[in-house]
Each structure stands twice: as C-alpha cells, then as structure tokens.
Amino acid sequence: MFRRVYLDNSATTPIDREVVAAMLPFLTEKFGNASSIHFFGQEARGAVDRARHQVAELINARPNEIVFTSGGTEANNLAIRGLIEANEKYGKHIITSNIEHSAVREVCQDLEKHGCEITYLPVYEDGIVKIEDVRNAVREETILITIMTANNEIGTIQPVDEIGKFVRAEKEKGKKIWFHTDAVQALGKIKVDVEEIGCDLLSISGHKLYAPKGVGALYVRRGVRLHAQNIGGHQERERRGGTESVPHIVAFGKACELAKNNLRETAEHLKNLRDKFENNVAERISDIEPNGNRENRLPNISNISFRSIEGEGLLINLDLQGVAVSTGSACSSGSLEPSPVIRALGRNDELARGAIRFSFGKDNTMEDVEYVLEVLPRAVENLRRLSPNFQAAKK
After folding, report:
1. In-domain check, residue 379
2. Residue numbers of the chain with a pLDDT score lower than 70
3. Structural domain range at position 237
C-alpha cells in the first residue's frame, strides 16, 4: 500500500478544522440573511463584520476597504473592469505582465477587444518583472498597472513595493493612474501589507488559505472608484450586489486570523520542506532545470523541468503512486499547449512541456517529502527509458 501525498496546494488547500468549526453554526442554527434587520439577520451581520476585520488585519487594511467576492477570479474582474469602467475618461491603457494568472490575462484580452490597449511586460529568465520596464511602459493614457504579487506556477515574487512607490509618485505629479495586484498565491505564505505595497486594489482568495472554495475578497483603497460588476443589490457598500454567503465569509475570516497568527512559523515550515525536496532532487535526478528565481520566491512552490519527459505523463505516473502534483495552473488544466509562464522564461517546448509544480502545504511533513523522493526518481527513469530522444542523447 502506498501513502497519499498532496503536493498541489497552489491549486487548492484542505479546509482547516478550526475554519470548519467556525463556519458550521452558520450553516445550521445561525442561518439569517445579513441584510435583514431582525435578530437572525443582525447575528449574521455581526459575523460578517467580524470576518471583515479579520481579513483586513491580515493585509493591514481598514475593514471598510474589504469587498467580499466569490473568489479571486471575481475579485480580479471587479478590480480591472470596475476600475476601467468607472475611470475610462482618464485613459484606456493597461500595463500587465506576460505571466499573470488567466483571471487577469483573459480579462485584459477581453478589454482589448473593447477598445483598451494592453502592454504585456516580459519577465526574462528569472520570472520577475523589471521595474524599469514598468516605468518605461507608462504613457499619458495609462490608467492601470496590474502585476501579481507572486506567480502561481513558479512562485516568483514581483517588485510590487517598487511599483506601488512608482505609482504613488506619479499620482503626486497629478497623473490619474492606479495599481492592482493579484495576491491570491502570496496570502498566508509571505507578508502581504497593502500599505507597504502601496496598491489601490488587491485580490485574495479563500481556498488557497485553508478556507472553502467560493469566497474571496478585493481590497479597495479609500477613494478608489469602481463600477460594480454584480448589479442587483446594495451589499458591500454598493460595490458587489448579492446576498452574502455568511458561512463562507466567516470561514475566510477565521482562515485569515489563523494565517496572521502563524505566518512566520508556517513560512519556515514550508521552506524547510521545499529546500529538502529540491536539494535531494538535484542529487538524485540528472537533466533537470529549476524554473524561476531561486531566492525571491514563495516558500512553498518548487517548479522543475525534467528533460525528455512529458509533464502530463510524469503527473499520471506519480498519481498512480499516491502523489498529487501539477503541470501548471489548475485553471489551465486540459490545455495541450506548454505553460505560457514557463515559455515566458525563455524555455523551449521540451522544458516547458516537462515542467512540474510541487506546491507544499502546512499539513505536509518530512515523511511526505521522503516518500516523494523515493518514487519520483523511479518515475522519471521509467519514462526516460521509453523516450527515444533521451536514449539517443545518452549514446
């Protein structure tokens, strides 16, 4: 019998038991609508308000700057579309990077069809945007810069503090420009502070943080105007209509509280797991290429390309032995094309197709790592034995 090891925590995480305990009462006896004025409604309203404080405290925001959404995708849509629609008189040029999550990239592509101009910045071999490229891309009609805090496939941390500082300086000169960052993958792994970043908008999600799927939030700095995308209700200060999912919001709040209290300990644990894994993989398996900057990255993600191997084949082989990994973003699952993130690093098709993401979670152990290190080299060797290209290169 093999053990089950889940190393796909960047796709989603298991719900923390304390989070489950916090939300359960709001699935049963505390069922009120948070917009109702009677006791049941006000009980629910109090729970939503508490969760809003918990989320705000994790990212150093004010509670009234938090807009609850159905997840990171909706938060990104609200941030980008909402900002453009409310402020398009100031310009319709957007700056982003070519390694953004599809929830940002595809929104930009859609806006491009409706009159917006998009500049896609490169990231070079280390997977990091250069602040000089951001500065040089700004034009008179630039209205929004949207650069992720950390990449979901390779974990590289972007210079969001520098971008925020630059945008603030531009505003002081009188320019109407805003800065949005997708912090979905960064939340709970590194410090995310909206004041240090200096962003106007920041997207986060619950299911990457040991809360349920179906809840997220958008930070909206005071004074930033957005056009609501969900019309039909006055909830969330007119910024997002729809009855609040109180159980999910409560769960997200609790998850944020736990993340804040355990951030340093969790980050150290994740880094120890990742480093042990990477050091041993490099010793046991030849012809591999780590992807992205080795230092400036999240503590939980390791992305490695295995030469002469199709990533999908290795994923399936590992799954048959109880190990869950990913070939890239879960939102791009099913695509036959090589990962655009890995290609953006300058990797060829062989390395892009052979890329595997190992993403560790707080519940993983050193025993999990040892088991993966036991089965991974065998899986790679078996697949390479079937590869004519690899066998020919050895001769």
Report:
1. yes
2. 1, 329-336, 388-395
3. 17-258
Whether residue 394 lies inside any domain: the answer is no
CA-based nearest residue to 183, from 138, 210, 151, 231: 151
> Given 202, 237, 258, which residue is the final one in a domain?
258
What's the CATH number where 101 sits? 3.40.640.10
pLDDT value of residue 329: 56
Is the domain of 202 the same as that of 316?
A: no
Do 346 and 215 lie in one domain? The reply is no
Q: What is the CATH number of the domain that holds 307?
A: 3.90.1150.10
Torsion angle of the four alpha carbons 217, 223, 225, 226, in this order, in degrees rounded to the nearest 10: 10
Q: What is the pLDDT of residues 92-121, one digit of tens each?
A: 999 999 999 999 999 999 999 999 999 999
CA quadruple 358, 363, 368, 370: dihedral, nearest 10: 90
Residue 59 exposed, middle or buried by CB count within 10 Å (0-12, 13-18, 19+) = buried
Residue 1 is predicted with a pLDDT of 65
- Single-letter residue type at 182: D
180 with 303, same domain? no
Count: domains in the chain: 2
- The pLDDT of residue 386 is 82
Strands, DSSP E only, in 178-272?
178-182, 201-205, 216-220
* Contact assessment for residue 177 and residue 170, using Cβ atoms and an 8 Å cutoff: yes
Contact assessment for residue 351 and residue 307, using Cβ atoms and an 8 Å cutoff: yes
Residues with Cβ within 8 Å of 373's Cβ and at least 6 positions away in sequence, in order, are 277, 280, 281, 284
The full 3-state SS of 56-101, as one line of letters, equals HHHHCCCHHHEEEECCHHHHHHHHHHHHHHHHHHHCCEEEEECCCC
> 270 and 253, same structural domain?
no
Q: What is the DSSP letter of 284?
A: H
Domain boundary among 226, 241, 258: 258
Please identify every residue annotated as catalytic.
331
Give the CA radius of gyration of the chain. Answer: 22
| Contact assessment for residue 388 and residue 359, using Cβ atoms and an 8 Å cutoff | no
User: Are residue 250 and residue 216 in the same domain, yes or no?
Assistant: yes
- What is the C-alpha separation between 313 and 309, in angstroms, rounded? 7
178, 311: one domain: no
Q: Which of 170, 243, 229 is nearest to 200 (CA)?
A: 170
Which residue has 């990742």 as its token pair?
A: 274
